[in-house]
Design goal:
The chain has about 120 residues and is mainly alpha-helical. The chain has two domains: about 55 residues; about 45 residues. About 60% of the residues lie in helices and about 10% in strands. It contains four helices and three strands; from the N terminus they run E-E-E-H-H-H-H. The protein has a three-stranded antiparallel sheet with strand order 1-2-3. Helix 2 crosses helix 4 and helix 3 crosses helix 4. The chain starts with 8 loop residues before the first strand and ends in a 5-residue tail after the last helix.
């Protein structure tokens, strides 16, 4: 018998296949293609799982590298922003400047200026 592949295929129309218990099992030629197809599919599945895991790791790295609080600011005039901040503070008696910035999507420096002005006007303490 002449060996043809890693499945120990022989010219006589079959394959000797080593089982988990260590015995050789003869598999007819008609089953050889099924074994090869299954092995190929299993390898493809394993490779795809490895690729997916690698992509998931990359996504996690990107999530950690990206700032969690990206705010798209509104473009408003100073007076419009001041009115928005005053209305916000009527509903929210206490608030951090960062909360106002995030909730109203206003520029941090602008909100800070408005807060300082409202303090000087004695509208807030």
């Amino acid at each position: 018998m002449e060996k043809y592949s890693n499945l120990s295929m022989y010219k006589d129309g079959g394959v000797l296949y080593e089982t988990k218990v260590g015995f050789d099992t003869f598999i007819p030629e008609t089953s050889v293609q099924d074994i090869r197809t299954t092995d190929t599919r299993e390898l493809a599945i394993i490779e795809n799982r490895e690729k997916i895991s690698a992509l998931e790791r990359e996504i996690e790295k990107l999530k950690k590298a990206t700032s969690p609080n990206v705010i798209i600011l509104k473009e408003v005039t100073y007076e419009e922003a001041k009115s928005m901040v005053e209305d916000y503070l009527k509903t929210n008696k206490t608030a951090y400047i960062s909360e106002i910035v995030e909730d109203l999507r206003l520029d941090l420096e602008l909100v800070h200026q408005i807060i300082e002005e409202l303090k000087t006007e004695n509208k807030i303490t």
